[in-house]
Fold this protein.
Amino acid sequence: MRNQRPGTPNAARAWLMAGSLAFLATGSALAQDKSMDEIAKYREMLADGNPAELIEMRGEELWKTPRGPKNVSLEQCDLGLGPGKVEGAYAQLPRYFADTGKVMDVESRLVHCMQTLQGYSFAEATKNWYSKPGKESDLVALVTWIGGQSNGQKISVPAKHPKEAEMVKIGEYIFHRRSGPQDFGCAICHGQDGVRIRLQDLDNLSQPKGAQKAMRTWPSYRVSQGTVWTMQRRLIDCMRQARWPEQKFPSDAVVALEMYLQNKATGGVLESPGIKR
């Protein structure tokens, strides 16, 4: 037994120790709350001037401008609500399209329209599918504008068609699957409450509340990257970080994962395009 200081009863020492631990825990919680408050203020400041608005304008111009070997615009592209109907379309994607027999997200559908309407080859349509600092992608600009046309609308991906329901199940399987050299999976970070990386809280995407919070702000301008990221790019990059096999754009596996997440997020209100750290 360790020596005790004379005149310090065990009960008193235990009380002092418990008090110290409680003080430290309270201090830690206060520091954490303060950090989260500062992050929230930082995000509010960013939202005041979202550079994605400029990219959104470019996307609208691209949508209406005749381009490609056939020199036609994308104005007759059917995003699920009928040819040329864009308002509210993003909020209801991914969805099943009878003309392709597939469930498609906004990006895979745009690639389809660029091929069938404008005459681009698959390689041409997907050549610059993501933006880099100083080199903006036409496809990303189009997705940004289309996303903005659903701003303020509720996400609605109920997965009523059998093909959509099947993709939700595939997406759920991918979400919970652990694989790769690190035996890693989406659910490790995003399948439970109260998880964080450094100062970043991680949403529980397996539950509607967390999925709605995460999915409502895509596509999103990423300040750290200096450009807009789409959901396909975000998920492909997540898989890269998990050391999974690299997905080729547009990826059906990613569309399935999007389908699962958007289905979970149904009912959430879009704030698109968003802005993130």
Remarks:
- The radius of gyration is 23 Å.
- The domain at 50-275 is CATH 1.10.760.10 (Cytochrome Bc1 Complex; Chain D, domain 2).
